[in-house]
Amino acid sequence: DMNLHDTRLPPSVVSGLQLSARDERRDLFPVKDILHPGQSHDGRFLNLVHPGAHSDIGGSYRLDGLSVRNGNLLTDYVNSLSDTPFLQSRTVPTAPEMNVIHRSEQHGSYYTTTMATTLGHRVHVHNLDGTGMTQAPSDAQSLDAGLRAHVPLRPVAVSAERTDPTLPAFFQHGPHARQVVVAPPLPADMRDAASPQMPVAPHPHAGSINTG
User: Fold this and answer.
1) Where is the region Disordered (predicted)?
2) Number of domains in the chain
3) Beta bridge partners of 16
4) What does the mean pLDDT of the chain come to?
5) How many helices (H) and strands (E) does the chain have?
6) How far apart are CA 206 and CA 189, in angstroms?
7) Range of the domain at 181
8) Would the CA dihedral through 155, 160, 162, 163 be positive or negative?
9) In what order do the strands lie in the sheet with 16-21?
10) For the chain, what is the radius of gyration of the CA atoms?
């Protein structure tokens, strides 16, 4: 159980991006805030809370409009860590039928949503040190002074979105996707070609990524 271990980011992590699923309600899937929601005061870290259940962020559903968008954001971040981009963004399916929020608690009768129902939102785990004994149990550790002096930072460039309004062939074969609800309008930072809210990325050193 990662909740029993220290998951605070160490001084060697120069930057990081976390995408959290706003609409995941299962008690077994609390969100661990390795990064505080929003942007850190020094611009190194960013935690975006996006519409969708767990796999609407990380992928695996056939109706994957949300996960493709989230994956493209991660692709842009990863590509910014290198002089030579090594990942390709995917074409975004823009048909409304492809952009839905899944009800992940319906995947099995053993999934409960008691805590989310009681709180009115997804359960968050803020304590990252695993013991609750440190003075800053919920914070990333300060960046190593040597790295701060020698690793330049630069904004992440969000690539222009390629879109496809057509429906996939599997829509021709009858009912599908019972476990969905219609998604609300997407936030502007997922629709626009560029976003000022992306974190700075080190160059050329690696950062940290967390999804779900």
Assistant:
1) 191-212
2) 1
3) 45, 208
4) 81
5) 5, 12
6) 24
7) 2-211
8) positive
9) 38-39, 45-50, 16-21, 208-211
10) 18
